[in-house]
Amino acid sequence: YLGVMPAYSAADDALTTKLVTFYEHLKDSSVPSHQATVLLFDPSNGTLKAVLDGSVITAKRTAAVSAIATKLLMPAFAEVLCILGAGVQAYSHYDIFTELFTFKEVRIWNRTEEKALRFASSVSGPVRVCSSAQEAVTGADVIVTVTMATAPILFGDWVKPGAHINAVGASRPDWRELDDELMKNSVLFVDSREAALTESGDVILSGAEIFAELGEVLKGTKPALPEKTTVFKSLGMAVEDTVAAKFVYDAWSAGN
């Protein structure tokens, strides 16, 4: 697939488009499944100002949004972080989650155990590699799903009541990471209602009701409900790339 994600932010005086290619590798590949480039334009005249590494921006901004959701929605005494998946997003989520939060234990599971072992040996802190998704999830307070799964790999009867889940994979209407029980028995938050109802198989196929967009919680028009079991379904928004690209460009410009 080749995706085009244009966005304009008047507040940031920024106009961008992200070009992203997505190839589903049937065998483990050294080439990432997602590759991206962000073009930053001058919104006053359309001049191209910068070409940025969209893969880095995508990884960082996606994890940053998950971290915001987690800060708002996770239980008060969260001690165990679980990451399902060991690709690019696993690394970016690990980095920001261990920087912002204090977990006593971090667990990881990946379909290919070799990748999970490689992840555990390359990050800065101790990580427990689990032999099954259920082992990784059981008792976890915060769960991050960053997989290429097309059918559920996380099941409601495994999940600790009151846990918070960031569901980042399964970005197509016929793909799933979470089962119906988890979707229907959790309070569901999304980045965009419109996107979730057309792009997220977890939302569409389960028929789960969306409680709020994350922006509504940030603005104070909807409560966070951290005492409940919560799911944040992240699909990503083009404006996140725009804000991130402008931030990088401004920092680079100041350095020059």
Automatic annotation (TrEMBL):
<dbReference type="GO" id="GO:0005737">
    <property type="term" value="C:cytoplasm"/>
</dbReference>
<dbReference type="GO" id="GO:0050241">
    <property type="term" value="F:pyrroline-2-carboxylate reductase activity"/>
</dbReference>
<dbReference type="InterPro" id="IPR036291">
    <property type="entry name" value="NAD(P)-bd_dom_sf"/>
</dbReference>
<protein>
    <recommendedName>
        <fullName>Ketimine reductase mu-crystallin</fullName>
        <ecNumber>1.5.1.1</ecNumber>
        <ecNumber>1.5.1.25</ecNumber>
    </recommendedName>
</protein>
<dbReference type="GO" id="GO:0070324">
    <property type="term" value="F:thyroid hormone binding"/>
</dbReference>
<dbReference type="InterPro" id="IPR003462">
    <property type="entry name" value="ODC_Mu_crystall"/>
</dbReference>
<dbReference type="GO" id="GO:0047127">
    <property type="term" value="F:thiomorpholine-carboxylate dehydrogenase activity"/>
</dbReference>
<dbReference type="GO" id="GO:0042403">
    <property type="term" value="P:thyroid hormone metabolic process"/>
</dbReference>
<comment type="subunit">
    <text>Homodimer. Binds the thyroid hormone triiodothyronine (T3); T3 binding inhibits enzymatic activity.</text>
</comment>
<dbReference type="InterPro" id="IPR023401">
    <property type="entry name" value="ODC_N"/>
</dbReference>
<comment type="similarity">
    <text>Belongs to the ornithine cyclodeaminase/mu-crystallin family.</text>
</comment>
<dbReference type="Pfam" id="PF02423">
    <property type="entry name" value="OCD_Mu_crystall"/>
</dbReference>
